[in-house]
Amino acid sequence: MATVLEKISAHVVSKMDFSHLATTRAKHAIIDTIGCMVAGAGDQTPLSVAAAFSNDIGTGGVSAMFTGGRASPAISALINGTAAHCLDFDDNFHPARAHASAVLVPALLAIATADRSISGPRFIRAYLAGLEAQAAVGFGVNPSHYNRGWHGTSTVGCIGSAAGVAILLGLGEAQIAQAMSIATSFAAGPKGQFGTAVKPLHAGMAARNAVEAAYLAQAGITGRLDILERPQGFLDLFGGTDSTGWDALSWDESHIIEIRGLVTKLHPCCASTHRVIDAALDLKTDHPFSLDQVQRIETKVGRSAVDNLTYSEPADEMQARFSMQYCLATALLQGRLSLSDFTRDAISRPEIRRHMPKISMTAYSEEEERGVERIAHQVTVTLLDGRIFRTERLHAKGAIAAPLTEADRHSKFSDCMRWAGLEEERLYSALADIGEVDSVKEALCIFDPIRVIARSQPATR
User: Which residue from 414, 151, 77, 175 is spatially nearest to 308, judged by alpha carbons?
Assistant: First the structure.
């Protein structure tokens, strides 16, 4: 009987043709992630990672980095993956409980920017393979895996992305399964690091690990192909009491990106805040009020969201991204959130801080969540005059149930480019056909100036 990894490998190898919807969504995700990488390249976290490996970076490397210079594919994936996730603006992928693209796109770019022959269609196929592999791995362990404190980005994301890299390298079915087996031994990352620089480093680690696992498999290293399901394997050690395993794993004719899709972030902060932010803004639209009129705002969210959002009084911009109080107060005061709201100066604004104590957060009980894959987040606003408004959202804006418009996507990309100090229109247009280009490496040459911009970012960011 085939092991889980063999089943996943056989499936991703067999998928050669994809619908227009699948390829379009993949292209949107890739462009969105590149925008996040460019914006994040000047952040202190990826710059610190680049400094740590400065001896491995120069003009002689084969893979490009958005922080400047070239390095080995593994180092490139590490730094670019950290940049992709450091502003917490990159997408979410619910089936894997992971920031799927922040691992997958940097890992694939590490290969593609070293090889002029990798075309857009080939890149898209590898992306879609890696995404489906992430979903399949996550199927057996989530949500228990995530709820017990594992960061799916650096665990499930690492294993699934190894399959995507292996596809891009042209490996066969057996080697793809081995790449995922090797990556399982690399998988790590506790959610206790949320709100610190190590959290985005998780994405970089996972991207690097995916690249190295694929190369090791290509070179002949082998591991157990039943490592997901066997005793002392991934499920046993990482799954949690509510994990179901993979006995019911199956695939639809349609790709997972068509059925479940990604959640493209509209707000540059932890996704655990997004449904509440969107719901509260819905209330403000339907019942116009100001924060000065508010007595209190009560939010009810999933247990994992409470675990993620531990900073009621954030001390820096990273903590602010994991603060329901800061994110919600800022969104309600301004009507929106942007990257400029997450600087040392911005998070200290008294006009926001004075409203934050009005916001409380509670979690659903374990019993309420049991057997429910997704639960709506609730908001109750009580005004000083006694009026009470309530609503809830099951999906954040950016999910396929509440998709972003082309204008939304363009506006987000523009925010990322402005943050990097780049002119956005030309760059957005240049990436529009990324899925059809003859060479991904050549298409990305337009971002060469980022090496200058990234090193001139203010240290206060």
Answer: 151
The pLDDT of residue 124? 98
Which pLDDT belongs to residue 448? Answer: 67
Is the same domain home to 121 and 35?
yes
Please report the pLDDT score of residue 454 as a whole number: 39
Give the domain range for residue 378: 271-393
Within a domain: 125: yes
Alpha-carbon distance 121 to 405, whole Å? 24
| 115 & 230 share domain | yes
What tokens were used for 20?
Answer: 């227009």
Q: How many residues does the chain have?
A: 461
If DSSP codes are grouped into helix, strand and coil, which group holds residue 301?
strand
Q: Which long-range contacts (CB under 8 A, 24 or more apart) does 148-151 make?
A: 148/240, 149/190, 149/191, 149/192, 149/307, 150/189, 150/190, 150/191, 150/238, 151/189, 151/190, 151/191, 151/193, 151/194, 151/199, 151/202
Q: Do 344 and 433 share a structural domain?
A: no
**Residue 398 located in a structural domain:** no
Give pLDDT, residue 427.
85
Residue 461 covered by a domain = no
- In 106-241, where do the E strands start and end? none
Phi and psi of 332, rounded to 5°? -70, -35
Q: What is the tens place of the pLDDT at every residue in 233-252?
A: 999 999 988 899 999 999 99
Which residues in the chain land under pLDDT 50?
A: 449, 451-461
C-beta of residue 146 within 8 angstroms of C-beta of residue 373? no
Q: Are residues 14 and 114 in the same domain?
A: yes
Count structural domains, the chain: 2
Distance CA 360, CA 321 (A): 16
Sheet of strand 377-383: strand arrangement: 359-363, 294-301, 377-383, 388-393
Cα 382 to Cα 390: distance, rounded to the nearest angstrom: 9
Structural domain includes residue 459: no
Q: Within this chain, do residues 8 and 88 fall inside the same structural domain, yes or no?
A: yes
- pLDDT computed for residue 461 by the predictor: 42
Q: Residue 460 has what DSSP assignment?
A: T
Q: Where are the beta strands (DSSP E) in 264-322?
A: 294-301
